[in-house]
Specification:
This protein is of the alpha/beta class and 373 residues long. Helices cover 27% and strands 21% of the residues. It has a domain of 58 residues.
């Protein structure tokens, strides 16, 4: 598969447009491959695939920061994070098969700072010593950019830790380069080897628009599922790409048809360069609920959440004057399940944009009505 890192080599951009794209790519790198680029309708400036992967000058608007969820705060050693009690996160790769323009982990692709695992034995020692860890998430970058042999070395090391039952692989490879899966029987055999009756591998993939569900992408997902691996999908709500009731409902439905169960719909994180891709939270809630109203129960299981520094915060409802949120998972276990009522702020794009708390209820004090007691 041929990869492209120089926007001039796209051959589709001319004059001032090329100049603007080059300027953006100089700050936030561009990376794509011939398969994914072939999905673009270059005659349509609003083509969703183009919006996802081609740099745009609107990214240069100053907004956000490189580590919007404060992952550094939870980093134990290079490439190992432990934010939630039962879950450890390993950054195993600095590469992706393409760079999404709305990426929240842009820092991985910028500069020389090392963010990935440098000492795998030390990371395994840490996980082994923390019996509460039952889940290990492999991410990056994209774990499937690693050679299968390297990926197996990591997975086999985790499988030797008795108290780890679930290995999750966060990957956009079925979307960006499904041939990585369909043409590597060794990868499929390896996945089958390490997913068992009581210790599963989950592939958490990242389809964001129905146009990405091509025949070869669906075949790649089917082959993964045939190994016994479970598949789920998590996606951000992105302005101009999937912030539309019909588009989002079509995506949720088609994912469920393929057995790739919708898991999370993320509020776009306030990472550097992401303002133009961000939908206000309350607008996003309405879009998501509209989309869910059009699909079956299997397709509507995704939760609308923010990956905030303090935890995963679920947006669970709203009225004309109030917004209701809950800690789906908190960095501080005592906050898990905490229910919060905010005064509505239609312009809010992140948890921190809500300044007026009307009431909050910890897990041991359930919510029993509107407003403060």
């Amino acid at each position: 598969m041929e990869y492209v890192t120089d926007v001039k080599k796209l051959g589709k951009l001319r004059g001032g447009e090329l100049s603007e794209v080059e300027k953006t790519a100089a700050k936030y790198p561009f990376y794509a491959n011939e398969y994914y680029l072939s999905l673009i309708n270059w005659r349509d400036p609003n083509d969703p695939i183009r919006q996802i992967v081609i740099p745009h000058p609107r990214e240069l608007e100053e907004w956000g920061r490189l580590d919007p969820s404060d992952e550094e705060k939870y980093t134990i050693m290079s490439g190992l994070e432990h934010k939630y009690n039962t879950t450890a996160l390993l950054l195993v790769s600095k590469k992706c098969a393409g760079i999404c323009r709305y990426c929240f982990r842009k820092r991985v692709f910028l500069g020389s700072q090392q963010h990935c695992i440098e000492d795998l034995p030390a990371a395994m020692d840490y996980i082994s010593a923390h019996k509460e860890i039952t889940n290990v998430l492999l991410t990056g970058g994209d774990p499937l950019t690693l050679p299968t042999e390297r990926l197996e070395k990591i997975i086999s090391a985790i499988r030797r830790i008795e108290h780890v039952h679930i290995i999750r692989i966060g990957t956009r490879m079925p979307v960006y380069n499904p041939y990585r899966i369909t043409e590597d029987t060794g990868l499929l055999k390896m996945l089958e080897k390490y997913t068992t009756a009581r210790k599963k591998i989950y592939v958490m993939t990242h389809f964001i628009h129905p146009k990405e569900l091509t025949d070869i992408a669906v075949t790649a997902c089917h082959l993964i599922q045939k190994t016994g691996v479970r598949m789920t999908n998590q996606l951000p709500l992105i302005k101009g790409i999937n912030d539309d009731c019909q588009v989002l409902s079509e995506l949720l439905a088609k994912l469920s048809f393929c057995g790739v169960i919708p898991y999370y719909i993320f509020q776009c994180r306030p990472a550097s360069g992401n303002k133009a891709y961000t939908v206000p939270i309350e607008t996003g809630y309405d879009i998501i609920e509209c989309a869910k109203s059009k699909v079956s129960g299997l397709a509507k299981r995704a939760r609308f959440v923010m990956s905030h520094s303090s935890g995963k915060i679920e947006i669970i409802g709203k009225t004309d004057t109030q917004v209701f949120m809950k800690y789906h998972r908190a960095a501080n276990d005592a906050d898990s399940g905490k229910f919060i009522i905010f005064k509505s702020n239609p312009q809010a794009c992140w948890f921190d944009d809500y300044s007026e708390v009307l009431a909050d209820y910890p897990l041991d004090k359930p919510y029993r009505g509107y407003g403060p007691e």
